[in-house]
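Exercise: predict the fold of this chain.
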Amino acid sequence: MFENSGKRQVIRMHPNDNVLVALIDLEKDVVVEFENQTYLLLDKVKAKHKFYTSDLNAGAEIIMYGVLIGKVQTKVLKGSLMTTENLKHAAEPYGYRGVAYQWQAPDITKYRNTTFNGYYQNDGQVGTANYWLFIPTVFCENRNLDVIKEALHNQLGYAVSDKYLRYTQDLLLAYQKGENLESVNISLAPTSSINRVFKNVDGIKFLNHQGGCGGTRQDATTLSALLASYANHPNVGGITVLSLGCQHLQVQQLIHDINIQNPLFEKPLFVFEQQESESEEQLIANAIKHTFEGLIQINLKERKPVPLSKLTLGVKCGGSDGFSGVSANPAVGYAADLLVALGGKVLLAEFPELCGVEQNLIDRCVNESIAQKFINLMQSYDELAHKVGSGFYMNPSPGNIKDGLITDAMKSAGAAKKGGTAPVIDVLDYTELATKPGLSLVCTPGNDVEATTGKAAAGATLILFTTGLGTPTGNPVCPVIKVATNSVLAKKMSDIIDIDCGPVISGAKTIEEMGEDILDYCIKAASGLIIPKAVQLNQDDFIPWKRGVSL
């Protein structure tokens, strides 16, 4: 797949590494020359995979990205392929050391006077979009939300399924005429937003979920805090709440949490309780009517120039491959560093995917209390996983492993690159809001949707999502920008990918150049000038974390 085009064959991610990463497919018996050394390959090494740079005995430590990522299980030879059979996860112990971290911030001259066009909220927050949000307090209301969604999306210009409806109609017509169905082709024309009634309302979003009752009271309390965070999100202009009435998560609790999180809350908010309504029909009709009135109200908002310091950027990876830590993650990390240097906020989450790089992050914490909070959250999370027979070491998926991510520590060391190199200014537990400019760590699972759900709750107004295998993941209130690690994926799945970091692999661009391209894209997306693919597709994924074991 990755053919030799005369470019680099391999790369070493850190001077101390004793493995090399193949940038192209390398055949067995090929001699690789790199940094004045030669390596005779004893196995075929596909692009993204690694081979050992010396003979090693069982128990030897393997270093990549400058950190311990595993220990070999059998004797391995120079030029042999790294596999799950010859390498197992290992990570260094960690603890607070009182390091005075010195950060070398990137040059931000290019962006010093740059602004984006965002939506100011009354409390001073700034959004990159203006959404109306439907919140059910319990899963019993999901069907009513689906009925309302179909009505509002179809009539107000937010539906994206028109081409599939037309395709089904064409299939039906062909069937009725007795024609061959193979002759019917789907139109690939993108869905247009030209028919939207409310030009300043970027979408009507729905937080369907499976909680609110039947679980533990702790689950309902956590869900209430999560939903309150979404109601308070800078990208949300107004809210409609649907309640059954008898569930654990009562409307009063949700409204209490909204006001506790934000005493300045002034957004239009409508509440409808089914057990207090004349009928389900009346409930739905009232919800639609009052929401329509609210849409008229928030449509009066207009985008205005905003300094980049008002941007909050979540960074995430999913469907990762062996190039994630080589191209996309470091490039996103450089964009993150630029934003931190400009006074903005950056959120790095996925605690299972920080396993093995804990010490680096601890050493970057600005004080001991923040470092200790990170240590406590990491240890309690991993202990909980071990109690049910799992652990962070079991995090890599079959797809990760197939594409070269052999151990969790290896995956984590590459994943952490998307957080850049800035000091860690704060550590946030799930549903806590980021309030400090700079880089914050947010406790979430690595699971794509649970992590993006938590990152939006922490206040992310854009999410950069890197992927090597491809994923359509999005979020209801926070635009998700998909960043491919390689050009093959970017071309193959162009309908869901926004940015291609393949030029880093080929050597056509540096990490710094790619990072600036990514930040430039973010500025346009934050201004509504570019609509990310996940937003175009209404890919509104929302999964609350119940604080059980999810990696």
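Check your answer against the key: The two ends are 31 Å apart (CA to CA).
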